[in-house]
Every structure is written in C-alpha cells, then in structure tokens.
Specification:
- The protein has 492 residues and is α/β, with parallel strands linked by helices.
- The longest helix has 32 residues.
- The C terminus is likely disordered.
Length: 492
C-alpha cells in the first residue's frame, strides 16, 4: 500500500460502558454528541460482545486475539503480567510499518503498590508500543505512581485527588460522591490531553496507530462539577428489570438510588464525550480524516441495577455486550447499522487488516471491514463470552442469530433477543431443543478453539524460554478448566 494511502488509526477504548447508554444507542438521556456523530459517520455493530466481561481478561484478549480459556487470564487478580509474547496486536501493526502509541489504562498486569508505571517501559516495548502513557483506573491511581499522579502533583492537586478517593472508598464503590478534582484534571481528561500531544507532535514520515484508553466511565460514580448535575435523576427512565430494591456490597438500593447512579454515570460519559470531541478536532488538524480509521468500543459493560445487579462479570446484555463502531470514510459506509455478530477481539484483526498487515497466527479475531464496507452481511455464526472467578467451573455464554444461552454457576438461561431484548423470559424449559443446540455449539467451539493449532504455534512459545513452564501452566489450566478436567501441573 503506498505510504500516502495508508490510514492513520485511532482506537478509542472506554472502560465498563453499558452498551445501552449514549445517544447512538437510542438513550434519550445520553449527552454524547461527539460519539453520536462518530457513529453516524460509520458503521455501528449492534451485536458485539466482550469475550471476557471483566477488565483484565477482556483487555488481555483485546491485545492477544485469544479467548480467556486460551490465554488463562480469567480475573483481575493475577500477579504476573500478561506474557508480552502473546500481545500480538501492536507488534503486528509495527510490522506493517506503523508507529504505535497507547495512552490511558492498560491493565495487562497489576503493579505493586507504590510502584510507578514508568518502571514497566521495557514491558510496553515488548508488547509492541513505541510510546506508552499508562494512566491507571481511578481507584488504582491512588495506590501507585503514574503520569497522572505526576500531572496532579505539578498542579498542586494530588492531595485533593487522594482525599477524593478516600471519601469515595469510605462511601462505597456504588455511592454517588461528586469529585473534588476539577474536570480537566480527571483521569479521563488527562488521558485525552496526553493523546492530543501525541497527535499534534506526530509527523508525516510514518503512519500512526494510537489507542486512547479512557479509565471511565468505570466506577467510582464521581462525575465532577457540572457533569455531576448534567442529567436530572428524575429524567432517567429505568428498565423494567431494575427491581424495587436490590442489595450490593451490604447496602440496599431503591430505584431512586439507581436513577442517581445512572445520572452520575451519564455525567462521566459526557465528560469522555467532550474530550473525544477534542481528540477528533486534533485529528482533523493533523490528519486526512477521510483516510483515518476510527474504532470505538469498550472492554465490557456495566449492569447498573438491571436484573438486580451492579458491576460486570455477567452475561446479560448490559454486561457482556459492548458498544462498537467503525468510521473510515474512504472505505466504510456511513449511517449503517448491522446485527452481524462481532467480538472484542475483532478490533485487533480489523486494525491489522486496515494497515495492510498480517495478524499473529494465534489471533482468533476476524476483520470487521468486509461487513463495514458492505462487501458482506454476516461476520460470525456465534459470539462467545466467558468468565471464571477462580473457584467452581467457568461460566460461558453463546449468542446465535437471535437466541442467547448462558450458564453461570448452577443456573442456565435462554433468551430470544429479537422477541425479548430485555431478557425477562427464560425459555430454557419451553424451548429445550434450542437450548441443547446452543449447548452443543458451545461445546464444539470450546473443543475446537482449545486445539485448533499446535500448542507451540498458538502460543508462540520458545523451547529455550526461561518462562516456558509458567506459560505452559497457564495454558494448561485454561484448557483443563474449560473442558471440565482437573488442573494439571506441567511435567517436571
């Protein structure tokens, strides 16, 4: 591809965004004009799912193209960093002749308390990133050093932020505590400011692939200033699946409490939207926007009271489904919405396809461009999501053309999403044949995806690697827990 025709790439990744929020999703209380415009100028994938509806597993899948049962990172509580050799996304983009940058939340490892993210520069380079500005999620930022805490310290606001977090933690994760930290010093704002610096300083000698990973609207519910009151809780329309009362973290919530949480969440998303507008304005100053690929998505969703639950780790639409749209005027049709099934790992394959590269051999993602360009109408026959807390058996979801089946713990669910988008009528007993068909398709998928390539090819393991036994153990455990076998230690 001639250099002049190679697109710059902007990937906007947000954290824990309920896919039903935002104007583009049909939410009447959404305050998202910039993201709405971005969606209208591209193709919206209305049936996209996280392969792992929790932060670290989803993000490790995002950069590796592997499902959690393949890479073995099932929860947020894993001490060892995700193996850099499996993070093929950015190395594949580099191999295509691109400069790579990443700003915002990574969460491919859990730093030690008090550690500064700059201490992991060699790891980021091994992942395939030329420039990394790692800004942790809001809670974790209070426990470690980062470009964000450096920025706060330089503005004399670090103590204010730390007090903010102390008050929020005292009140509880799902409590509305408007932030004492000004809007332009929020983690999302500083993430955007650093991204704009990279865009403004980027020359024409090499195309750029930049990921902007906003830490929000993940809890806490601490929208700052005017954002905290931008949406009146009285205007928030709750779905029928929010009960009169629900309990989470030892606290009872009423429907009015949920309205207040959702209003604040709208404010956090509105802040992100404002900064997305400024990032896009920087791109318009510096790049040919007709030949710029922009992808917007989230690592997973957020229940926000639906079905009596908060947080993620669930397979209801609010948690497992993700927003996903693609804009590229030179190639992608504007104003198009598609129900083609898609997965988070498809972003990796889409970007590498767009830049003229080749994905690493283990990547299970598939390029969305055939559907986005109108060359195809179907993308995947099924979409899969999975979660494991570390005890018991893993839980899995499979989505077909219209039905979704999932099992979590001892409970099984089957819904016809065309007839019942709110997932209020479990069809497990009334449609047993459909449930059995999806069970079998899920089992077939897990068996095939666990052994679709020789182990060494799939994991890119080197026989002389000092970490070989550790990496094999992680893969063994992932495979064995998926198939219901006992975990096995690798041979001596």
């Amino acid at each position: 591809m001639p250099e002049t025709q190679r697109p710059n790439v902007l990937v906007i990744l947000v954290d824990q965004l309920n896919p039903l929020f935002g104007g583009w999703a049909g939410d009447p209380t959404g305050v998202t004009p910039n993201l709405d415009r971005l969606a209208a100028e591209g193709t919206v994938f209305d049936c996209a799912y996280s392969v792992g509806p929790v932060c670290m597993p989803g993000r490790c899948s995002f950069i590796s193209g592997l499902y959690p049962h393949q890479h073995g990172y099932w929860t947020n509580f894993i001490d060892e960093a995700f193996p850099a050799r499996l993070g093929g996304f950015y190395r594949d983009v580099q191999a295509a002749g691109y400069r790579t940058g990443y700003v915002g939340k990574t969460h491919w490892f859990n730093p030690a308390w008090g550690e500064h993210t700059r201490e992991h520069e060699s790891y980021f380079q091994a992942i395939g990133l030329d420039t990394t500005v790692d800004i942790p999620g809001t809670y974790l930022a209070a426990f470690q050093g980062s470009p964000y805490t450096d920025h706060l310290r330089s503005h004399g606001m670090l103590d204010t932020f730390l007090r903010d977090m102390a008050l929020q933690m005292q009140a509880g994760q799902y409590a509305v505590v408007p932030s004492l930290t000004p809007g332009d010093l929020q983690p999302d704002a500083v993430t955007a400011q650093e991204a704009i610096k990279i865009i403004d300083s980027h020359g024409d000698e090499q195309p750029l692939c930049l990921t902007v990973s906003f830490p929000g609207p993940h809890p806490p519910f601490n929208a700052p200033g005017d954002y905290a009151t931008m949406v009146d809780p009285a205007d928030v329309v709750l779905p029928e699946t929010v009960p009169a009362e629900l309990t989470f973290g030892g606290r009872t919530f009423t429907r009015d409490d949920v309205r207040a949480l959702r209003a604040n969440y709208h404010g956090k998303l509105a802040l992100i939207d404002d900064w997305c507008g400024r990032i896009l304005a920087a791109c318009e100053r510096c790049w040919d926007m007709d030949n710029t690929l922009v992808v917007f998505t989230s690592d997973h969703g957020e229940m926000l009271g639906a079905h009596g639950r908060f947080s993620k780790c669930q397979f209801w639409e609010e948690s497992a489904r993700i927003p996903l749209f693609v804009r590229w005027p030179r190639r992608v049709a504007a104003g198009q919405r598609t129900r083609a099934l898609a997965e988070l790992i498809d972003v990796y394959a889409t970007v590498v396809d767009a830049v003229g590269g080749q994905v690493s051999p283990w990547c299970c993602g598939r390029s969305l461009l055939p559907v986005a360009t109108g060359a195809a109408t179907a993308h995947r026959e099924i979409a899969v999501s999975e979660f494991w807390s570390g005890s018991g058996s893993p839980s899995h979801m499979i989505r077909g053309a219209d039905h979704k089946y999932f099992r979590q713990g001892k409970h099984e669910h089957l819904y016809d999403l065309d007839a019942d988008p709110g997932e209020q009528h479990n069809l497990l007993e009334s449609e047993p044949a459909t449930a059995e068909e999806l069970r079998q398709r899920l089992a077939l998928f897990l068996n095939r995806s666990s052994g679709y390539r020789p182990l060494f090819d799939r994991a890119n393991l080197q026989a002389d690697s000092p970490d070989l036994a550790r990496d094999l153990l992680g893969l063994f455990r992932g495979l064995h827990h998926t198939t219901g076998l006992d975990a096995a230690e690798p041979p001596e």
